[in-house]
Amino acid sequence: MKRGIGLFLAVICTGIAFYSSRFWLFRLWPRDGLLNIEFLRPQGNILSVVLRGTDARPFELLIWAVLVFLSLTLLQWLWNRFLG
Q1: Tens digit of pLDDT for each residue in 74-84?
Q2: Most buried pick, 31, 45, 64, 72, via CB within 10 A?
Q3: Residue 49: which residues within 8 A CB-CB, separation 6 or more?
Q4: pLDDT value of position 19
């Protein structure tokens, strides 16, 4: 049961990570955004929108990789701490 929950959490986190990156290929909802929230665009790439107009924009991929690594590390630490 714990492995199934862990696998489910890993799949959800992977989906969120890819949605926030430039690697998102799917358009699963209309142009208005998910639940009419304009920030949740169908083409993903949220990090690019957040970094637009800043000096960090050229480092988008590096920032994305670091954030994904840190979030998965935190998720593993929480898993081991509470369910491990």
Answers
A1: 988 988 998 86
A2: 64
A3: 39, 41
A4: 84
> With contact defined as beta carbons under 8 Å apart, do 15 and 81 qualify?
no
Contacts 24+ apart (CB under 8 A), 35-39: none
Cβ neighbourhood burial of 44 (10 Å; 0-12, 13-18, 19+): buried
CB 17: neighbour CB atoms within 10 A?
18
User: What was the pLDDT predicted at 18?
Assistant: 86
Q: From CA 43, how far away is CA 28, in angstroms rounded?
A: 9
Those residues with Cβ within 8 angstroms of residue 56's Cβ, 6 or more apart along the chain or in another chain:
63
H helix runs in the chain, sequence order: 2-19, 46-51, 60-82
